[in-house]
TrEMBL record:
<feature type="signal peptide">
    <location>
        <begin position="1"/>
        <end position="24"/>
    </location>
</feature>
<dbReference type="GO" id="GO:0019005">
    <property type="term" value="C:SCF ubiquitin ligase complex"/>
</dbReference>
<comment type="subunit">
    <text>Component of the SCF-type E3 ligase complex.</text>
</comment>
<dbReference type="GO" id="GO:0005737">
    <property type="term" value="C:cytoplasm"/>
</dbReference>
<dbReference type="GO" id="GO:0031146">
    <property type="term" value="P:SCF-dependent proteasomal ubiquitin-dependent protein catabolic process"/>
</dbReference>
<protein>
    <recommendedName>
        <fullName>F-box protein</fullName>
    </recommendedName>
</protein>
<dbReference type="GO" id="GO:0016567">
    <property type="term" value="P:protein ubiquitination"/>
</dbReference>
<dbReference type="InterPro" id="IPR036047">
    <property type="entry name" value="F-box-like_dom_sf"/>
</dbReference>
<dbReference type="GO" id="GO:0005634">
    <property type="term" value="C:nucleus"/>
</dbReference>
<feature type="domain" description="F-box">
    <location>
        <begin position="1"/>
        <end position="44"/>
    </location>
</feature>
<dbReference type="InterPro" id="IPR001810">
    <property type="entry name" value="F-box_dom"/>
</dbReference>
<comment type="function">
    <text>Acts as a component of a SCF E3 ubiquitin ligase complexes.</text>
</comment>
<dbReference type="Pfam" id="PF12937">
    <property type="entry name" value="F-box-like"/>
</dbReference>
<keyword id="KW-0833">Ubl conjugation pathway</keyword>
<keyword id="KW-0539">Nucleus</keyword>
<keyword id="KW-0732">Signal</keyword>
<comment type="pathway">
    <text>Protein modification; protein ubiquitination.</text>
</comment>
Length: 163
């Protein structure tokens, strides 16, 4: 593959399914760059969900077809709405297929007692990420904090609608 022209490599990668393409991305940096091509992911999306869905879900702004494919695949696997999912050893809060927040890991390795010493707080609708030092928080604590953040955002949204 190293001696093949890039166009020929792309044609070969276009023949792979999602799982084999994900495996090929892990081979080396060059393959990862080539398998992240929008044309490959656009074709995969159209094969799986059809051209009509592809027109409706076409990437917006800085999103790529790969991102759109992964979100749609996650929606198919876990459904719509607000869900807590586990992928590997990590837990995520997912809304409409988009990962909203990383809740934690089953095997946290940062602290001596198995707890992470820092966490990131993301609020839906905010663009900035605020990193803060906190005492050790478990997944349940993070879920409760997120629900509190969600309630505040909901109240704010209702106030904006009334005004």
């Amino acid at each position: 593959m190293e001696r093949f022209p890039a166009d020929l490599c792309l044609k070969i990668f276009c023949l792979l399914d999602y799982q084999n393409l994900a495996t090929a991305q892990q081979v080396c940096r060059k393959w990862k760059a080539m398998t992240s091509d929008n044309k490959i992911w656009s074709n995969l999306f159209k094969e799986r969900w059809g051209s009509d869905h592809a027109m409706f879900y076409a990437p917006v702004d800085s999103k790529s077809w790969k991102d759109v494919y992964e979100v749609q695949d996650r929606c198919d696997r876990v459904g719509l709405g607000l869900k807590i999912i586990r992928e590997g050893g990590d837990y995520y809060l997912v809304h409409q297929g988009e990962i909203q927040r990383h809740l934690g890991s089953r095997s946290q390795q940062n602290g001596a007692n198995g707890c992470s010493l820092s966490s990131e707080r993301h609020l839906i609708g905010e663009t900035s990420v605020e990193e803060e030092k906190e005492p050790c928080l478990g997944i349940l604590d993070k879920i409760l904090f997120f629900i509190g953040d969600l309630e505040v955002a909901s109240i704010y949204a209702k106030r904006c609608r009334v005004l």
